[in-house]
Amino acid sequence: MAQQERDQAVDRELTMSRAMVEAIAHEMREDEEVFYMGEDVADYGGIFDSTEGLLDEFGHDRIMDVPISETAYVGAAVGAAQEGMRPIAELMFVDFFGVGMDQIYNQMAKNTYMSGGNVSVPMVLTAAVGGTYNDAAQHSQTLYGTFAHLPGMKVVVPSTAYEAKGLMHNAIRDDDPVVYLFHKRLMGIGWLPAPDGPKTPVPEEDYTIPFGSADVKREGSDVTIVTLGLHVHRALDAAEDLDDDGVDAEVIDLRTLVPLDTETVVESVRKTGRLVVVDEDYRSFGVTGEVVSRVADEALDDLEAVERVAVPDVPIPYSRPMENEVIPDGEDIKAAVEATE
Amino acid sequence: MSGDDDRVAVTADGAWTDDVDSEEGVVVNWFAGEGGAVDEGESLCEVQVEKVSVDVEAPVAGTLDEIVLGEDDEFTIGDTVAWIDPE
Lengths: 341, 87
Prior knowledge:
The complex is a heterodimer of chains A (341) and B (87). Chain A is of the alpha/beta class and 341 residues long. Chain A is 37% helix and 19% strand. Chain A contains 13 helices and 14 strands. In chain A, the strands form 3 sheets. Chain A has a 7-stranded mixed sheet, with helices on both faces. Chain A has a 5-stranded mixed sheet with strand order 9-11-10-13-14, sandwiched between helices. In chain A, strands 1-8 form a two-stranded antiparallel ribbon. Chain B has 87 residues and is mainly β. In chain B, the strands form 2 sheets. Chain B has a 4-stranded antiparallel sheet with strand order 1-8-6-3, with no helix packed on it. A 4-stranded antiparallel sheet of chain B has the order 5-4-2-7, with no helix packed on it. In chain B, a hairpin with a 2-residue loop joins β4 and β5 (52-57). Chain B is globular and about 35 Å long. The relative contact order of chain B is 0.35. The A-B interface holds A 11-15, 18, 188-191, 193, 199 and B 26, 28-33, 36-38, 42, 46, 48, 51, 53, 72.
């Protein structure tokens, strides 16, 4: 793959958080209209290191801590974007989106449409997503589907440092609103160790990854596993296990939900005939159902078997064994693949 | 250990050591790999002491010859975490 060729040329590896920060800093140097605001993003550097070090270079005028009012600062970002700035507003936890839901759902996503195209809203809404560290039901959701469901916004979910940087460059340069969801477990923080995988070689120069281009992380001929975010790494682990049993799994990283690269998924299913969709969002009315539907629309005759692996329709439990039970792991993915045989 | 070559030790210390009470820490992330070229001042790895993360920088430019303490390894402040073959 092209990405592996690039990797060999780069000595340096970065964690996902550092890759994100590098892209943001680059864009801020190039364009004075880019600024970042959110809770604890300035002096603290973001509780998941999403803005670590930016305050030192850019100061409080462009790296802004805000009061705990998501309605106020997301609304301020929408207004600034309409006036020509390029704000990045961070929801500390995606779970907090509900407080500012009108600004997100009715202003950020729709103002371009409602104004007949007279304004655009070139802002990025960043948010930490995901569980696996026992932070309970109000701090552990992924909610990709909640944003992808809404017309008007693009939705980005990086799985590695390489993707995090390229997708962030693209997000900031996009003239429409983008929701950029980073999984806490992938950031590479000392107290929340990442699995092997998200820390990758990252070029020093800027580069973009176009939205709507899924990446085949592992080629295989027997079954297609479609996933995103943290579960790319869990699916790759499962694929290694399956390989020992003689099952050759293809793993597709969607990278963006809106736009969704249906073509890459369908092409893979035409080859393998078996589809397993894996997601950390809730099972019902969500990402897994959407991906299966799209494949059914395009390639029903090629589809021999389908399985979905997602969080059952329950709030994420606080208790460690119970949280481990509901969030899909490699064994769950492997079992789902075996169920398609 | 360093007497038989010209390698330069990369040590887990810096201006930050005065700000912490603990002598013990843990290596969290390596950003450079063995055999790779490094610049003077480049962040080689991230260590954590008392839940505070600090970067350990290359004291000289050269080739990262050996990583002594890998990710998740514990260290005492001043320990050698790696060796650089200077340019």
